[in-house]
Amino acid sequence: MTIERADIEKLAELARIEINEATIAETTQSIADVLALVDQLQAADTEGVEPMAHPSDAVQRLRADEVTESNHRDDFQAIAPATEAGLYLVPKVID
Amino acid sequence: MNNSIMHNKTIADIIAGLDSGEFTSVEITQHYLKRIQQLDSTYNSYITVNEASALAQAEAADKRRAEGNAPAFCGVPIAHKDIFCTNGVRTSCGSKMLDNFVPPYDATVVENFARAGAVILGKTNMDEFAMGSSNETSFYGPVKNPWDINTVPGGSSGGSATAVAAHLAPGATATDTGGSIRQPAALCGITGLKPTYGRVSRWGMIAFASSLDQGGPMARTAEDCALMLNIMAGFDPKDSTSIDQGVPDYTENLNQSLEGLKVGVPKEYFEEGLNPGTEQAVRDALAELEKQGATLVSISLPHTKLAVPAYYVIAPAEASANLSRFDGARYGYRCEDPKDLRDMYMRTRGEGFGDEVKRRILVGAYCLSAGYYDAYYRKAQQVRRLIKQDFVDAFETVDVIMGPTAPTPAFEFGAKGNDPVAMYLEDIYTIATNLAGLPGMSVPCGFVDNKPVGLQIIGNYFDESRMLNVAHQFQQTTDWHQQAPEGIEVEGIKAGDTE
Amino acid sequence: MEWETVIGLEVHAQLATKSKIFSGASTTFGAEPNTQACALDLAMPGTLPVPNEQAFRYAIMFGLAIDAEIAKTSVFDRKNYFYPDLPKAYQTTQLEKPIVGPGHVEIELVDGTKKSIRIHHAHLEEDAGKSLHEDFHGMSGIDLNRAGTPLVEIVSEPDMSNSEEAVAFAKKLHGIVTSLGICDGEMSQGSMRFDVNISVRKPGEELGTRTETKNLNSFRFMEDAIALEVERQIDLIEDGGRVIQETRLYNGDSKESRSMRSKEEANDYRYFPCPDLLPVVFDDDYIESIRKELPELPDARHDRFVEQYGLSSYDANILSGDASMAQYFETAAKTSGDTKLTANWMMGELSARLNAADLSIKHSPLSAEQLAGMIARITDGTISSKMAKQVFDGLWNSDGDADSIIEAKGLKQVSDSGAIETLVDEVIANSGKQVDNFRNADESKRPKMLGYFVGQIMKASKGQANPQQVNEILLKKLNDLL
Predict the structure, then answer these.
(1) Could you give the ipTM of this predicted complex?
(2) Is residue B342 part of a domain?
């Protein structure tokens, strides 16, 4: 699998991570190295093997429908970068 | 080792000393705080030291003890890896992203230790978001291995490992996603245990890869790990992956004989890439166990070589989503003057994360992206099942599996500098157990060039008691775990001695 | 050649649980911003989800109601995208193994024809928070109270071919979820939101490129938005253009739609199974126990209304579809004792007034008991239907009952036959010419001539004479004169 600068730019956009111009070549190379490592997987015979998402075979427990949380807005917003009138402020959202 | 010196005492010794009134929690806490102050500028094992709150906790503990209602860890000082959220205490996860993050809640593990009366000395250094095997990726700078400060302590729990190895805490919590407890334990010459997946609650433990992460103890002895695990383990309804199964007293079987124990020795763990000195130390340890009555059984774990590739799809994929919440909107780092929403996201994450974290997020995004999911993510999940099956098959015939924890002893800073793949291979023997969800331990078993070597013990699901029993028995006839690095004794520290 | 329209719906219904799908925070609507957003809802580090059983019960109830297969094992996936109202930057949803498999519902159209609409699947997921677009010094405000509210997303097959069918389908789903009690159906509060996928094609051709118009929260907006989008697509193609796949926003106030800029970039959601959640498994006993407790559904209620109340199929359809409407009708019909009149008033005056005020029946200012009280007074002759309009106005604007309004407005109908006879006698006595004309007229023309006398009598009674009695007495008296 060859990976190019354009691929990295696309991934960076998807993951919302700015990669600066000075390091993009190095980033591309190191990711190519990692992908070369994981490409060893292609040699494995996995015909008919069910993918495994969890180490245990347990099934999900479900919670009773009860309100167990109370309002801690002040605690949470004390550590927020920007709030006003109980709202978290972020740069303008445009739909 | 002179265990009349306070900082040489194991947790078991400390509990006994507090019980007998040999010293108070305030005394031992002050002793540790002083050591940290004097020594940690060299090792950098702590990100945050809780001087005031630790002393307050110690005072409260002494009072409880005097009142006769001391819980199990009443007054015992320990440290938490800075990945566990601590109410009112900055929890950075080793990242600039969370440098200013003070959670208003405790992780379940933290709560458990608080309930048990423990004193929290501080929060230990770590690779950023637990991504690394050398502690070089921390925003707070690398941690130095006390055995040789030019070498790495391993990672990601390098701060916890060093704090214990340098006797700056008798025990510390840690987490292990691909070897992050066992590999630094091996490199720092201490004992560390990664429990079965689901045994220790992940609630409040900042997620790296949810299906692999597991909290566990680091201490100098297997017995201390058992004591800590007694506090850490247990069902937590707040964690959906926590297993609702009774917790035994992990100290109960420590003294059982190893007569008849069947030890699986996988041939794949002794192949190319293993340091000869490390191999020798591990083989000697196995011989020691044979002397105690264990039988060595040669086994094969045929998919071992695929563990690292599978891991480096699954862990980054999960991490890429787990770390998306760090977006500058509600807590943590936000870039200066974002010009629009996209800019806030891009620069907050570009500036807030270090290179290794960014690399893994991008790899994870790649493996999940349209057109690559089947070839990478799905394939890795299939291989994961094959790897688990290897272990399930092996445990049909053996009780524990043993081999080296890490392929080499501690290496120098920058040795694997720009080569992420070389770094990833550090965890070649530990990663498979995370993929399978099995418990694993590392126990000191010798030295190469004055650098510690770790023996890995892999147990069957929920068989931590057996692992601890084996490790404890090994530590009854060996003294590798009692070796202390030079340089951890300092002028003036005698003030804290009990003699 | 005519254009053919192909419509599919994605419907988000908020489930009426007390707490959120993965946290114990309250779901009550209208709280102060972020007071119902707990650590998990805010995606604080280290927090973990635990699913709410009631959300599953509700989803299973829906599945059983549409005759769908319930998945014995369902799985949550993560859908990754960055948006400030999505704190984790992934939505926990179900992609590969949803809780509800394929099902279907039947809709009835105005002309009485019926059509089955297939449902591809329905899955559970978490709602997002809200971005408030008021200007905070050039910033947006984020309220995460809604984040984590359980949703069932119902995805239809593209089985609808015009807005009437789409609206009928939407109303049917609304009726089902409100009848089940799994969703409050409050569309103005966003409890039910409709995304409409629309494409056009010439008959026999392959499906055209579709657009998605998002977040329609009223049936009328849906109808208008479909008409607008169909026209836009046809115009575009006929002018030589081509439809591009995009998400559009419809503005109900300006009746315009526009492309959503932020969603334009190619999305790659990188779905994968959520590692924090295990597979959710149900056995047959569990599912069957839910089936046994299912309340009456709109189709069954429709048939019962026809049978029990003698309603036409069309009337029954309107009155039984929505749970609140059905409940209102049954209460009013039973209290008033006059089914037919209740149905007429509900589908006539009440519907018109609710529509004009943009209110749902649930928020009708006029309770079923009030309406029934008024209808009872029509039936017992206390007021005429014409007077009833005034009573209705009075009830709409007050909490009083019909009797007190009749009293206050002096609307009581004169049903005292003695008093009416006096009035009739007076009018006959004062209408010599008209009486003569009546007497001399051909018998077939006489009924038409009654109008004059009735008018005079009603005028003399100030409109309060019981018209039925007036008719009877007048006819008798005039016939006596023959």
Answers:
(1) 0.97
(2) no
* CA proximity to B112, closest of B234, B254, B282, B251: B234
Q: Is residue A24 part of a domain?
A: yes
Asked if residue C271 lies in contact with residue B374, where contact means CB atoms within 8 angstroms, the answer is: no
Q: What angle, 0 to 180 degrees and rounded to 10, lies between the N-to-C axes of helices C53-65 and C163-180?
A: 130
Domain coordinates in residue numbering, chain C: 4-289, 296-409, 417-481
- pTM of this prediction? 0.91
DSSP code at position A51:
P
Number of domains in chain A: 1
Subunit contact A17:B342, Cβ cutoff 8 A: no
Interface probe, candidates C82, C83, C137, C281, chain B, greatest B C-beta count within 10 A:
C82
Q: Is C158 within 8 Å of C209 (Cβ atoms)? A: no
Is A30 among the domain residues? Answer: yes
Q: CB neighbours of B275 closer than 8 A, spacing ≥ 6?
A: B407, B408, B409, B448
Fold of C417-481: Arc Repressor Mutant, subunit A (1.10.10)
Q: In whole angstroms, give the CA distance from residue B464 to residue B437.
A: 12
One digit per residue, the tens of pLDDT, for chain A of length 95 reads: 588 999 999 999 999 999 989 999 999 999 999 999 999 999 999 999 999 999 988 999 999 999 999 999 999 999 999 999 999 999 998 76
Range of the domain at B89: 6-268+274-301+389-482
Q: Say yes or no for a CB contact (<8 Å) between A94 and C261.
A: yes
In C273-297, which positions are buried (b, 16+ CB within 10 angstroms) versus exposed (e)? bbbbbbbbebeeeebeebeeeeeeb
Catalytic residue list of B: 81, 156, 180
Per-residue DSSP letter, B406: S
* B382 lies within 8 A of chain C by CB: no
Question: What 3-state class would DSSP assign to C94?
Answer: coil
Helix (H, G, I), strand (E, B) or coil at C47: coil
Q: In what order do the strands lie in the sheet with A83-84?
A: A83-84, A87-91, C139-143, C130-136
Binned average pLDDT, 10 residues per bin, chain C of 482 residues: 92 98 96 98 98 98 97 98 97 97 94 94 98 85 98 98 96 95 93 96 91 91 95 94 91 89 69 98 97 95 94 90 91 93 93 88 91 90 82 86 81 74 86 85 82 84 78 84 76
CB–CB contact B368 C271 (8 Å)? yes
B305, A37 contact by CB (below 8 A): no
pLDDT digits (tens, 9 = 90+) for C46-84: 999 999 999 999 999 999 999 999 999 999 999 999 999
CATH number of domain containing B283: 3.90.1300.10
Nearest Cα to Cα of residue B93 among B44, B52, B131, B59: B131
